[in-house]
Amino acid sequence: MPDNEIEYIQPGEIEKRSFEIIERELRQQGITLPRDQASVTKRVIHTSADFDYAVTMTYSKDAVSVAKKLVLDGANIVTDTRMALSGINKRILESHGGQAHCFMADADVRKEAEKRQVTRAAVSMERAMMIPGPVIVVVGNAPTALLSLYDLIQKKKWKPAFVIGVPVGFVNVVTAKELILKTDVPYIINRGRKGGSTVAAAIVNAILYGLER
Amino acid sequence: MPDNEIEYIQPGEIEKRSFEIIERELRQQGITLPRDQASVTKRVIHTSADFDYAVTMTYSKDAVSVAKKLVLDGANIVTDTRMALSGINKRILESHGGQAHCFMADADVRKEAEKRQVTRAAVSMERAMMIPGPVIVVVGNAPTALLSLYDLIQKKKWKPAFVIGVPVGFVNVVTAKELILKTDVPYIINRGRKGGSTVAAAIVNAILYGLER
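Structure tokens for the assembled complex are given below, as produced in the milestone run.
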């Protein structure tokens, strides 16, 4: 079916049809995604219509299984944007005991960031470390969140249980991702400049949906 | 400054620096954006790190001025996703008398969509037409929202004051955008498969920020 005709399709079938198209085009491009990563990378392509992610998405060993187990164990999620928080399927997360948080709009975070002349995202990471139990940090916007995390890890002040690192942009984004790749924290990271809140939410949701199948 | 070094920069300067990089790379690619569209297209590139948008973003005549005037006149905004709603700068919008809405999570919208076997986005558009005064429709996800709009316009049932049409995906996305281009409704549309809630919010925010400068 060419792109320029309307395909009449039941609402519930649209996502299935989209994934079929993605799988077909990956085959046409000669790309075979590793079996354990495919559900996440395909959902990122689904949310971005950008096949670059098939090449740049980077996973630590057994990353998807590790993340699933954390959710099953009731891990909390901390995001660096209200948009990513808004896009995450809280119903599934909370059914396993975890909650999703975003501290970016908190008045005390803003105040402290201004005082210290750092970003609110950096301060948010220090709030994340106060949460009891394992925390999955989800960064869809601010490379400074990853830089702050890297600093905490290096100084052995805190280690998140998992990092989903897909900030987007032009200043320090590439570097911040590469620094997290050097740590021993389990991760899903999109190398390069691309990412964003929709990509971050898609990764989290792929993990959550994987628990329901 | 290469991508692989940390650039030490004050938080307030990051966005300015990002736009300088975008402008430089556009020049290097030989791309000159039309003056009245540049602020919007650059903000979309800023939010996606994807220069494809420099080519695919499509504007009706004086689209940015038309949209600004609508906001100044107190137009309301209706989005097709909670994420886009979450990303829009409501403070500026509301300071001019408009409000941002998203009907997707409303129980009655869900119920009606199930009953009629259409998407919630399609039903949401029929809710949008009930809002008194001019409405800017912002579609970041569901091509069915645009198809539903096109149908309303064709049948002369309703005409939104402006359409920001940047759904993303693989089923009916390209076609739905092309149909809106055929109407006489003022628009900002990204042709092709790409778009999304972050892109939708970036377009709205570029218009809103333009009112403060």
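The beta strands of chain B are 57-59, 76-79, 100-102, 135-139, 162-165, 187-190. Chain B touches chain A through 48 residues (CB under 8 Å). Further analysis is deferred to the final report.
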